[in-house]
Structure prediction request, 144 residues.
Amino acid sequence: MVIAANYMREISNVFEKSDCINVYTAGDVKTYKSGTDEFKGIISCWYEMIEGAYDMPAFGVSLHAETLEAMKSGKWIEFVFNEKKVYNGMTFEKLLIQIESGFKGFNLIRYNSENGYSGRCFYFNLVDNDMSKLSDYLADFGQK
Prediction:
């Protein structure tokens, strides 16, 4: 269990180091730079949501064209990094997550400039939590 906790700490620490967060709503994107109130609010909800979560093998892989098509509907957030990161032996420059209120787990879809959103994902199990608070917080962004 200590090994799993160390892995989660490793990936958890990376989110607040993102350069910006893109919020996609039905294909429209808004960007929130690190240090802004919106960025801090998203990060706060994010860390509250993943508290106690653990990673598992992903249920599948992402296909770039299908991911781009899926991003045209619903709510998504994307953590963007200014340099390549590595977690569990897999590199990424961005991490994309579909936001759905009742989800109790989710894929972290990796983006690399070489193949876009194609490839293996990470999967987070939220245990006794779900995406409700983050989903509600992001829904308020549409009102601004």
